[in-house]
Write a structure and sequence with these properties.
Blueprint lengths: L1 H17 L18 E8 L6 H20 L7 E8 L4 H14 L4 E6 L1 H13 L4 E5 L13 E2 L5 H15 L4 E7 L2 H13 L6 E8 L7 H10 L3 E5 L5 H10 L6 E4 L6 H7 L7 E4 L11 H7 L9 H20 L5 H9 L30 E8 L2 E10 L3
Helix pairs in contact: 2-10, 2-11, 3-4, 5-6, 8-9, 11-12
Length: 399
Amino acid sequence: MKRVFKGLLVLVLLSAVSFGVFAGGQQEAVPGVTEDSIKVGTFQAMSGPVASIGVPVANGLNAYFNYVNARGGVYGRKIDLIVADDQFNPGKTTVEVKRLIESDNVFALVAGLGTPGCLAVMDYVNESGVPFVYQASGSSRLAVPPKEFVFPVQPNYLVEGNVAVRYLAEVKGAKRIAIVYRNAEDGKEEFESVKEAIKLYDAKLVEAIAIDPTATDFATEVNKLSAANADAVIVMLFNPQTPPFVKQAKQYGITKPTYLLTYANAAVTFMQLAEEAAEGVESMAWVDVDFTDTTFEPFQMYQETFPGEIPNAYALAGMVAAELFVHALEMAGENLSRADLVDALEKLSDWSGQLGKGITYKPYSADDNTCRLGKQSMYVLKVKDGVWTREADWVYYQD
């Protein structure tokens, strides 16, 4: 009996050491974390029709993490990124995210792409207690109501619609505003925001045109827009629809209004596809970058992985996500846990890095719809001589 007891005692002691109960170890085994690595996951459209966005976002993540890893990582741990290709299909997103969490055993998710996929997995990820830092989506449902482990960053569509109206009314002096929007949840969110925000100004919503997300010809919608006689048009469409819509509208002679695009279009891709119709078009933006400044340090960081390339807006979004995540890891300390990462993020107040600006969270409260908003200001870019240039400085959400 004594021999059995001693054997059990040895097993208990060995288990205690392996799980770090004694001094010098962590309090518990942390998924995805070893002495020299931190395993994180992301889901991106690496193939399919939205790969022109997903691939650059993944490149931005990889470039930033490679840069950090080449300098020793975070407290000696290298970041091991697993990129799952969900092809912008929410059914596939669910499968891939479950694999990342249950099979790959990732510590956290960083920068999942797309409203459909992010919404499909947000509750599962939150209930699993896995931190999800940055979603490449503008859906307000990611932040409201708040989820303890879900940390949106980029302005949601309710914020963008409000800021867009404020800019057009106060800065551009627009009186007759129209909106063209995707007939989907994201587009409807921005439309509702525009409809409410315009009441705050001496301006009128003269037309609201919903467009099927699969449409490739816009003759009917362009005719409606022409009849509206708007002096500003908010275009809440994504690539591949935005460039042909703007081209077709201008070909129909609608050239006088200010065209203000949603921020996902502030990329070289839009100019390439819209060709001469891109000139003079404006876009909301929130990643604070001067694309003409080739000495900008994050560009040099990116080029360590992709020599000679300037990252586009999507790649920079990936770098923003990686920058925020790494900063939170540093704040969380050497004895890393998921709770420590959440606590570190909740301490950020108007935090700015080299790329991410003005990011704020607060301790989680189910009754506080502001505790996971992330960012609430944007600026405006304009295509001038074939280059995205800054047209207006930060515009803030107006209640």
